[in-house]
Amino acid sequence: MNLNSSLETGQADTGLTIAGKTYSSRLLVGSGKYRDLEQTRAATEASGAEIITVAIRRVNIGQDPNAPNLLDVVPPSRYTILPNTAGCYTAADAVYTLQLGRELLNGHKLAKLEVLGDERTLFPNMPETLKAAEALVKDGFDVMVYCSDDPIQARILEEIGCVAVMPLASLIGSGMGILNPWNLSLIIEQAKVPVLVDAGVGTASDAAIAMELGCDGVLMNTAIAGAQDPIRMARAMRLAIEAGREAFLAGRIPKRFAASPSSPMAGRVK
Question: Which residues form the catalytic set?
Answer without folding.
Answer: 112
